[in-house]
UniProtKB/TrEMBL annotation:
InterPro entries: MetI-like, MetI-like_sf. Residues 56-281 form the ABC transmembrane type-1 domain. Pfam families: BPD_transp_1. This is ABC transporter permease. The chain crosses the membrane at residues 60-81, 93-113, 152-178, 199-223, 262-283. PROSITE patterns: ABC_TM1. It is found in: Cell membrane. Signal peptide: none annotated. Keywords: Cell membrane, Membrane, Transmembrane, Transmembrane helix, Transport. PANTHER family: BLR7065 PROTEIN (PTHR43005), SPERMIDINE_PUTRESCINE TRANSPORT SYSTEM PERMEASE PROTEIN (PTHR43005:SF1). GO terms for biological process: transmembrane transport.
């Protein structure tokens, strides 16, 4: 009975991983028909490549910042949505919209909003007198150039990632809040515990497994995402926003070096496996 599922998993996951491992140990290219075994040369070359080191650092910074921002905002949103108020279903629907929209289309929308010339955020800042004249709070730039300056480009990618991941994290935490025993919360309220004491000493300890699931999904989706960086910056300016997924694509597909591209992609596998094992072990321990 489980044989179809095993075959499905083997074909869908096993074959690509085996091919990636084979490519990473060879000098195969998109323009050649032969592949020669080179051992670990692709991996040793990557460790000496400053672009790869920078991509690792950018990936970690963007992922961790997105994770922290998403988790904090998801807790706030879930706490608000758990309360009873008129029109709650409309608010829930609006919060879920970023998750239901196709990723490429939504990021293209952000590409326009962060445009160096037509950005509505620049217009708003200019109307508030914060941008465009010498001595203004944000400097003498007539535009912010959200995607053209290294720091702002990284911030923009983190912002879009948080916007995309927030609905899923909110739904997960909201489900945990709705399933939490209310008598414990009400007993703490009767005993005189304030809002933050109830939140940190009652709600959070009970919802630790739920937080673990939210952290796991947010980390995996952000760490392996290519859409946001590829559409917004393509790794620029000057590789300041290059991440592992885009570097693997540019090296292996556009650059033609499938071996090095596969080696970069395989670097994601042990990191994801290690983080997943740690988080799942934490969730299991808390449940027990």
């Amino acid at each position: 009975m489980v044989l179809p599922a095993i075959l499905y998993i083997a074909l869908l996951l096993g074959v690509p991983i085996v091919l990636a491992l084979y490519y990473s140990l060879s000098d195969v290219t998109t323009g050649g028909s032969a592949a020669h075994f080179v051992g670990l040369e692709n991996f040793t070359a990557l460790l000496q490549d400053p672009d790869f080191i920078g991509a690792v650092q950018n990936t970690l910074v963007i992922t961790i910042a997105t994770l922290i921002g998403t988790l904090v905002l998801a807790v706030i949103q879930a706490e608000l949505l758990a309360r009873n108020f008129r029109g709650k279903w409309v608010v829930r629907f609006l919060i879920l919209l970023p998750w239901t929209a196709p990723a490429s289309l939504s990021v293209i929308g952000w590409l326009w909003m962060l445009d160096s010339t037509f950005s509505p955020y620049d217009w708003l800042l200019r109307q508030l007198g914060l941008l465009g004249r010498p001595g203004d709070l944000l400097g003498t730039y007539s535009n912010m150039y959200w995607l053209g300056r290294a720091g702002l480009a990284t911030f923009s990618i983190i912002l879009v990632n948080i916007w995309r991941m927030l609905p899923l994290a909110t739904v997960i935490i909201l489900a945990g809040l709705n399933g939490m025993p209310r008598d414990i919360y009400e007993q703490a309220q009767i005993d005189g515990a304030g809002y933050f004491r109830r939140l940190f000493h009652v709600v959070f300890p009970i919802l630790y497994p739920v937080f673990g699931v939210s952290i796991l999904f947010t980390f995996v989706f952000t760490f392996t995402d290519i859409v946001t960086v590829y559409i917004l910056t393509r790794g620029g300016p000057a590789n300041s926003t290059q991440v592992l997924t885009t570097l693997a694509f540019f090296t292996g597909v556009q650059g033609g070096s499938l071996g090095q591209g596969a080696a970069i992609a395989l670097f994601l596998l042990p990191v994801l496996a290690a983080v997943s094992i740690v988080i799942l072990a934490f969730i299991r321990r808390r449940e027990i």
